[in-house]
Amino acid sequence: MEKTMNLTIRVWRQKNRLDVGKFAEYKLADISEDSSFLEMLDILSEQLVADGHEPVAFDHDCREGICGMCSMTINGIPHGPESGTTACQLHMRHFHDGQTITIEPWRAKPFPVIKDLVVDRTPLDKIIQSGGFITARAGSAVDANAMPIAKGIADYAMDAAACIGCGACVAACPNASAMLFTSAKVAHMNSLPQGKAEKDRRTLAMVTTMDGEGFGGCTNIGECEAACPKSIPLDMIAHLNRDYATAQFKNFFKPVA
Amino acid sequence: MNLDSKIPEGPLAQKWTSHKFNMKLVNPANRRKYNVIVVGSGLAGGAAAASLAEQGYNVSCFCYQDSPRRAHSIAAQGGINASKNYQNDGDSVHRLFYDTVKGGDYRAREANVYRLAEVSSDIIDQCVANGVPFAREYGGLLANRSFGGAQVSRTFYARGQTGQQLLLGAYSALSKQIGLGKVKMYNRHEMLDVVKVDGHAKGIIVRNMVTGEVTRHAGDAVVVATGGYGNVFFLSTNAQGCNVTAAHRAYRRGAGMANPCYTQIHPTCIPVHGDQQSKLTLMSESLRNDGRVWAPKDQETAKKIREGKLNPNDVAEDDRDYYLERKYPSFGNLAPRDISSRAAKEACDDGRGVATTGLGVFLDFRDAIKRDGQKAIEERYGNLFEMYQCITGDNPYETPMMIFPAVHYTMGGLWVDYNLQSTIPGMFVGGEANFSDHGANRLGASALMQGLADGYFVLPYTVGNYLGEQGVAAAGQVTTDHPAFAEVEADVQSRIQKLMSIGGTESPRSFHKRLGNIMWEKCGMSRTKESLTEAIEEIQALRREFWSNLKVVGDADSLNPELERAGRVADFMEFGEILCRDALMREESCGGHFRAEHQTDDGEAMRDDDKFAFVGVWEYKGDDVPPALHKEPLVYENIKLATRSYK
Fold it and tell me: Was domain B266-407 assigned CATH 1.10.1470.10?
């Protein structure tokens, strides 16, 4: 027999970017513990629609924890209480009957609220656009096995590349720093032999863009690592700092780009 | 409707090479005079947009998500096929071609599939060059795994996140071009119609999902790479936003819709938990490399398991029915998807299903863990096991996983010729949105291959060829001031107004659920003439109800997920009927299309090559008028049609 629960949902409502916004409270009954967190929000939406109200707007898409679209702070923690889990993969069995759940959008200056829980995360795309790529025009590649890459390096690059770009690290950081996000991409590409040619240029450009978009600096608090649904480690930031220092040093003597 | 497939002359292996040579080229200096519209930013769309921009064309790219990196290609887990033969186990372009045609139950076009197999190796090279961290062996060379429907090891993978890594590769190439200003990216924009000028696709109408603004965009060619239509079933493994709108709107403007009844039901998904479920989660097919699929031999044991009175681990070896290994000894647990799904359904229909609903079978890793150790299994499937545990609360290292088939992929789609051009000149269709390469059933790890083949290596050539044929004098000549744009924009606006103004009582999601229920029950894993006839009538009735009782809250000029869903469901309501009509027309069983009337004595699909070796293409004839059927005959010159056997 499946277990169900009754809940109080305290959720941020904000009409648009200019609206001030405030919390609203709703009651929900008979939520199955096997439901996902977003299914619980679907049920809330249907309830609101039935009453003639607008449902709570929230970003979501794959619901498999991989697209990075879902983005909400649940009881003060981006993506909620389960570590290494996106909001869409969070299930109601981690909550209990009678609980009040508070849901907010990502709170960070570079991520303005568009509506309710939906924020604008395009600054993350801009960081990638400035250098988060390895230039290889379609058609120009050599045989994939021409360059062996030690398993350890490939595995490390994969660890870094697991980032889903959700922005939880920014939301968790008191400085709204995007260092974990940026460093994961830098570490992924800088560690691979294919990525070496653009290493310095990439590192400098991405950090410059990151700063320019209004993200704060890193003060080694570590909230990002704790909130990251893909458990990207702080080591990546160390990697970025090292590559950034090297690139700046070289750039001082001879501009790298 | 002109269904000239434009397959080049010459021997199969030379077709693509000679076709490329015969193409019209556009001088690099002239390319910047052309604008190409790409709708969708997944593997096909993202790679095409990046590659066309690299060549020098101006590209506008549209996606409904908040970033191009989120397209649903990202969710593919298992891998990507390529005929590299790095394992020295007998793979070749011809074998990949053969496996794909056979896997598709001889309903795909030979020349297209051959080209796909031919460029498959280039894709791996390209992805590695772009920094995709594929799994490697200790020697530093690329690792491979095997996948359903093949007896060679040709699948490249990046843990259980291959789709993610490939998409991020294409996204990074696309991002570079956005940064350079060669691609103008429109996030959170949804294509709502296509604009034709003198019969050629010259633009699209989109809605800005944040502001509600409806805008016109003109281009010299339009590429539609908007994915599949699995969400017509409501519950599927597709992302919530996946929809048929772009393809269906193109169909209404004259593009042929091909083989919509070919829908793939994936055998290894997590069973449904209840009626509040919003989506189904796929567990990668790669799990079948090591997991053994079984159901209890008798109904009594199954009942005890369902009621929680018996631990599946305590079921004796003799009481387990490893039905895939029993029925298909040579392919065993790696039998293709359609076959595995039907076998699971059979077991459950027989009262031997597990999970609380009785709709589940086991995928057991006990023997693999015993053989290779838990660590090895963890390395191969760690993230999938975690995902399973996170969703179900069960630990699959200890309790066997439960799986059940779910709608996953759609082989049908807009009809395209060899150049991936639809029946609307100037409109190209790539990836899952077209029908071209997988016939009636897609093999595992072939979707990623096709998306990137289309995006990196086919469309950049064929779109260029089309632009070259139009001539440089035509470049950028059609602008959004052309009356055709105003006309289509007015249609789009009035449709939005209509959706907003019905003022009924039922939500778009509720209608979607009801449609999905009809589709799954009557046009799902097994179909009959009777069930399909009923489905068509029920969909028509539901559609009438939709347009008289729909309730859309909110307004049209701001972010409104209800309105977005309403528009998509409205299109699914029309499209679902075409799908059922196609299934009704096809009086045979092939691949993902199983007509209960057409099966062998032991329950295998029975094709009818004499009557049905053709592509069924539907032409829009007007609202409430049945669409017209056209046929493109499938001619097999290099492969002998045979009954597919995996025994």
Answer: no
CB B305 within 8 A of CB B268: no
β B614-619/B257-258 pair status: antiparallel
Note whether B366 contacts A: Cβ–Cβ < 8 A.
Answer: no
Closest CA to B203 of B215, B213, B212, B211: B215
Residues in chain B closer than 8 A to A202 (CB atoms): none
Which of 72-111 (B) contact A at CB < 8 A? 72, 74-75, 84, 86
Look at B553 and A54 and tell me if their CB atoms are within 8 Å. yes
Residues of A in contact with B560 (CB under 8 A): 54
User: Could you give the angle at the alpha carbon of B330 between the alpha carbons of B13 and B597, nearest 5°?
Assistant: 85
State whether B391 and A89 contact (CB < 8 Å): yes
Q: Which two tokens stand for residue B526?
A: 């097994």
SS3 of residue B552 by DSSP: coil
A18 touches chain B (CB under 8 A): no
E strand residue ranges, B225-359: 257-258, 263-269, 292-296, 320-321
pLDDT tens for each residue of B189-236: 999 999 999 999 999 999 999 999 999 999 999 999 999 999 999 999
Q: Where does chain A hold its CATH 3.10.20.30 domain(s)?
A: 4-115
Where along chain A do the CATH 1.10.1060.10 domains lie? 121-253
CB B589 within 8 A of CB B599: yes
Short-list B228, B180, B210, CA closest to B40:
B228
Fold of A4-115: Ubiquitin-like (UB roll) (3.10.20)
pLDDT band at A2 (very low <50, low <70, confident <90, very high): low
Q: What is the spatial distance between Cα B124 and Cα B10, in angstroms, rounded to a whole number? A: 27
Residue with structure tokens 């990075």? A68
* Residues of B with active-site annotation: 337
DSSP B478-524: --TTSHHHHHHHHHHHHHHHHHHH---SB-HHHHHHHHHHHHHHHHS
Give every CB contact of residue B374 below 8 A, 6+ residues apart in sequence.
B397
Q: Tell me which residues of chain B, numbers 238 to 267, contact chain A at a CB-CB cutoff of 8 Å.
A: 239-241
Hey, which residues 133-162 in chain A have their CB within 8 Å of chain B?
A: 133-145, 147-151, 154-155, 157-158, 161-162
Helix (H, G, I), strand (E, B) or coil at B46: helix
Q: A35 to chain B: which residues are within 8 Å by CB?
A: 273-274, 276-277
ipTM: 0.98
Side-chain-side CA neighbours of residue B301 (13 Å): 19
* Local structure of B445: helix, strand or coil: coil
The pLDDT of residue B147: 80
**Do A247 and A200 touch, CB atoms closer than 8 A?**
yes
The mean of the pLDDT values for chain B is: 96
Q: Is the model's pLDDT at A11 over the cut of 60?
A: yes
Other CB atoms within a 10 A radius of the CB of residue B532 amount to 22
Q: A113 to chain B: which residues are within 8 Å by CB?
A: none
Angstrom distance (rounded) from CA A129 to CA A141: 21
Whole-angstrom CA distances from B295 to B344, B602, B628 are 8, 19, 44
Topology adopted by domain B483-614: Methane Monooxygenase Hydroxylase; Chain G, domain 1 (1.20.58)
CATH says A121-253 is which class? mainly alpha
Closest Cα partner for A212 from A133, A107, A104, A131? A131
Which residues 39-68 of chain B have a CB within 8 Å of chain A? Answer: 47, 50-51, 54, 65-68
Cα–Cα distance for residue pair A174/A180, rounded to 1 Å: 13
Provide the 8-state DSSP code for B627: P
Let me know: does B61 contact B68? Beta carbons within 8 Å: yes
Q: Do A2 and B125 touch (CB under 8 A)?
A: no
- Residue A17, min C-alpha distance to chain B (Å): 10
